[in-house]
C-alpha cells in the first residue's frame, strides 16, 4: 500500500485485503506458482514469487 501511494486508514484494512486478493489472482493467472502472497501474522504480507516490472510503451 505504501508503494502504491495509497493512504492507510483504519477502515482501509478490508480494502487492502481485497487488493491483495486481486493481486494474488492476477499473479496466478500469469502463471506464478502458489502461494504468491502470504499473510504474516502481526506483520503484514509477503510476496513469495519473483516479479519483473517492465515499462510499457505509451499508447
Secondary-structure blueprint:
Elements: H1 13-29, E1 37-40, E2 44-47
Antiparallel strand pairs: 1-2
Would you kindly provide a written description of the structure presented here, covering whatever features stand out?
- The chain is of the alpha+beta class and 59 residues long.
- It has a domain at 10-47.
- 29% of the residues lie in helices and 14% in strands.
- It has one helix at residues 13-29; strands spanning 37-40, 44-47.
- Strands 1-2 form a two-stranded antiparallel ribbon.
Number of strands: 2
N-to-C SSE series? HEE
Distance between the termini: 27 Å
Structural class: alpha+beta
**Helix percentage:** 25-40%
Strand order of the largest sheet: 1-2
Largest sheet: 2 strands, antiparallel
Gross morphology is globular
As a whole number of angstroms, the C-alpha radius of gyration is 13 Å
Features:
alpha+beta, 14% strand
In brief:
The protein is of the alpha+beta class. Helix content is 29%, strand content 14%.
Amino acid at each position: 500500500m505504501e508503494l502504491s501511494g495509497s493512504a492507510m486508514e483504519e477502515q482501509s484494512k478490508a480494502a487492502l485485503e481485497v487488493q491483495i486478493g486481486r493481486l494474488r489472482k492476477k499473479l496466478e493467472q500469469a502463471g506464478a506458482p502458489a502461494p504468491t502472497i502470504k499473510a504474516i501474522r502481526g506483520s503484514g504480507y509477503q510476496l513469495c514469487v519473483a516479479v519483473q516490472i517492465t515499462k510499457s510503451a505509451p499508447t
